[in-house]
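Bumping with the actual sequence this time:
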Amino acid sequence: MSKSFDLRRARPWEVALTVFALSAPLVLPLAATGQSGFIREAIAQEMQQVDSSKLVAIGGAVTEIVYALGEGGRLVARDSTSTFPEEALQLPDVGYMRQLSPEGVIAVNPTAILAVEGSGPPDALAVLKSAGIPFETVPEGYDRAAILKKIDVVGKFLGVPDKAKELETTVAADLDAAIADAAGRPESERKRVLFILSFQNGRVMAAGGHTAADGIIGLAGAVNATEGTFEGYKPLTDEAIIKARPDVVMVMTRPGAGSSDEEILAHPAISVTPAAASKAILRMNSLHLLGFGPRTASAIRDLNKELYGNVSQ
């Protein structure tokens, strides 16, 4: 028994196709002459077409990829983490990726939205998705494969898969070279790095596993000092900091980041670590280092150089 067709639950293209079939019975012979595949392909192509001529990009890596694909002219707005390339700063800013206002995004009248996974809050995304604007989530991740996947998803959404393949090839080769250079360092020489996300009132919020910080530290030939103890970002006790034995304390350079090197090194637990003994505080640009986009190979080389004084080829 064939399944009944419920018009109330049908997608717009299904309704249109049904009306067309009923009003034009002469199309049926096409199926008998081997043309049904052509019809299915035409329908599939039509369904996949998205008007991305007025695009909002949420997430620094997403915006970078759009420009790297040569499609920056489509952008009508970006979020506050999208600061590269420089021309992106000329676009309207719809706010921080995790604190979006749906009204602010809709106000720029976009025809499509690309947002990196983790954007939010969830209720804001729900409003945007219900507004009828094509919305694509770009999966997040902190390794080579994740970067290439981002490029692939963005390229397909914009309808430029060939450009995406070319960019993937270029980025993959650059990543492979940077990763191979860093990986050549003997395990015994790898420094332990404590990544501090925030340092307020003596409380240390540090990076554990499955974070962008953990990913970039490993790719640069170092060891996350909290390795194997927890995932995500969490406050550390003094005992946990001492046990981590960091050789280097890394903090991000960003507006409003208040604590000085002296304040960090004077922390009771940090003060007894190897990092304090050598006064090894490393400050780096967070958006470049943790973006995991087309420039990640450069970030790997920069961090490797800061940690070991090497210049990757």
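The tokens above came from a reply further down the thread. The first strand starts at residue 55 and ends at 58.
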